[in-house]
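Researcher: Batch entry, complex prediction.
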Amino acid sequence: MSVGVFILVSVIKSLIVLVVLLTAVAYTVWLERKVVGHMQNRWGPTRVGPFGLLQPAADGLKFLFKEDLTPPHVYKPLFLAAPMMALIFALTSIAVIPFGNSITIGGTNIPLQITDLNIGLLLILGVTSLGVYGVALAGWSSNNKYSLLGGLRASAQMVSYEIALGLSLVGVLIQSGSFSLRTIVEAQGGRFWGFIPRWNIFHGQFIGFFIYLMAAYAETNRIPFDLPEAETELVAGYHTEYSAMKFAMFFMAEYANMITVACLATLLFFGGWNGPLFGPPILRALLPVFWFGAKIFCFLFLYIWVRGTLPRFRYDQLMSFGWKFLLPLAIANLVATAIAVAW
Amino acid sequence: MVPLSYYLVLSGFLFACGVAGFLIKRNIITIFMSIELMLNGVNLSFVAFAAHWHALSGQVFVFFVMVVAAAEAAVGLAIIIAVYRTRETLNVDQVNLLKL
Amino acid sequence: MSFHLVLFLAFGAVCVGGAVNLLAQRHPINSALSLIAVMAALAGEYLLLGAEFVAAVQVIVYAGAIMVLFVFVIMLLNAGEEEETKGSRVAVLLGVPGVLTGSVLIAWVVVRHSGTEAVAIGALPGHPTEIAQLLFHDFLLPFEVTSILILIAIMGAVVLASKPEATARKVD
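Model: Structure tokens for the complex:
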């Protein structure tokens, strides 16, 4: 397609994905409050709108109108820049996530992905590595001992679990032979023996999936690995001194990271948008997106379920788990996969 | 089409800034960062020449430079921490006696 | 003014600005952030030359791990702004003109000795498959040696940065 059409289509895709992602972030917060509430035998938000569905809108308005306080002795440039960095890096990785097969509108073939890079998976790993800066610089620039400790702990945790995360993905890469996310998903089409789908989790990456899941929970600073931001431990960790919109940016960044992790788990281990297709062509074009969304919803529910159930690790337990258990297991998984593929 | 010399001049300028930082700055951490800047300038040269001579080994060699830079950064920063513990300063002008 | 040249100049301006800012700033955290900007712009330059895998590794390893290490140490040691001493004034007086002369000399020699060879955008696509072929076949020995180098660096860093009482106890 011509350059002009390409730019127009890309801009429209980016806008749609951005709006959908930010709405998804807001409603993931709602989902978490409802699910954790029900697990704790209470209702969660019920007053604002039916089932509390307008609660995210109310929260957004609250964040906009709150007093944006900048404490006197902070290092101002980094204090202002750190939440922006956290949010920018959290939202960037969605650019290479494919949501479904290509659809054809008016003769042009539009793949449901903002861009399909040859090194798509590496971009996500790179952006995850850069996400450490938002946390570390927020903790340091706040000029507060709780923030500094929380920031240092959170960034050390994120850097440690990045290794296990990357290694757990290499097993999938060896089996699929490409870094491009679309190719990885397309390699998971079809079924074994007619009814077991050819998803990577059934195709030998079972342990890889669990390593990825645990490493991803630690990367996104969620329970059971959320010591750096636990209220009983370090006041609020690296976002102690932040209020109103800047805190909302950290909050959004955390949930956007959760959604990215869920998307990646679906694409790499659960077959992405592959699912039973039926019905007229318009339905066949939209069903993959629905299957993708359903799988992501399952992962987000799992995230929230784990949050409501498990206690948190102590910091030294957390670090020794990452370095002494997950890393050797990931290396063993990698070696086993390589041997199996080379055979 | 960008002439090859543009890439080499940019690489040379980064290297020169690294050397300047190494000589001018007094904070040991900034001196280390100037070393990293020099290594980055050299990496750009490698990749530019790889593109010019159509030899992929230039790009492969960049990995080795990065690995050496990472190892050197790790050990160097550990040394800085050890020096800071005993001398309580990060200014190289004050670390000029073998005895404390 | 082709698109390639515009992109090269844009990334190049960020590189140059970041490098000069590293020298001009007095607080090491600002220098660290300028260096991160230089590395990100260099990743863009590598993409212009077609080296996509190298660009990704530059961001993941250099900007995302090595510079995190630098930022950690700056935060841990609570590094403050540099003080101006007699030594630093002499260094600036002699150093800046000296390095400027050196870099102008290098640039002049480079421009005079290279002809009109131009590099196309994405000149040598560095796909991971071909790089892996080279890395694990022709460059296998350097690869293994660098892995041993990393192992030595890990051990060295752990020993050097550990608390003195712990090592003293081990010696006794």
